[in-house]
Specification:
The protein is mostly helical. It has 5 helices and 3 strands, in the order H-E-H-H-H-E-E-H. The C terminus is likely disordered.
């Protein structure tokens, strides 16, 4: 099973509630939080390269299922919980549903709202 943000059946009230209220972000976690279709995989690729000292062989040899897991999907959440620190995670969750533990951790969150504007401008001709 692939671990991507497009597995509609993988969202459940129970999983989202667990992520929001019980999932513990660790101090050395890095979470890629982006709008859908705004360069999430590109950001994962960049962070993977940074994490592995710029060595592209590590990133090139990973398929999508081995990329940073999406914490809001049940299947991916199980993988995220099993990862040893430091973890690289992904999410499209809005702040209201994001893990509350973030407020008390030193976890790093990377997001790029400008990428959404550029994507919309280039793909559908929206004016910025």
């Amino acid at each position: 099973m692939f671990c991507t943000p497009f597995l509609i059946d993988e969202h459940s009230v129970e999983t989202l509630s667990f992520v929001e209220n019980e999932f513990q972000l660790l101090d050395d976690d890095t979470v890629v939080v982006t709008y859908p279709k705004s360069g999430t995989f590109w950001m994962q690729e960049i962070l993977g390269l940074i994490r592995h000292d710029g060595d592209p062989s590590r990133v090139q040899n990973l398929g999508l299922p081995q990329r940073p897991p999406w914490i809001e999907h049940e299947y991916c959440l199980k993988r995220a919980l099993a990862l040893p620190p430091p973890r690289l995670l992904s999410s499209h969750l809005p702040f209201q549903l994001f893990p509350k533990s973030f407020l008390h951790s030193k976890a790093k969150v990377g997001e790029e709202p400008f990428a959404l504007e550029v994507h919309l401008h280039l793909s559908v001709g929206c004016k910025m």
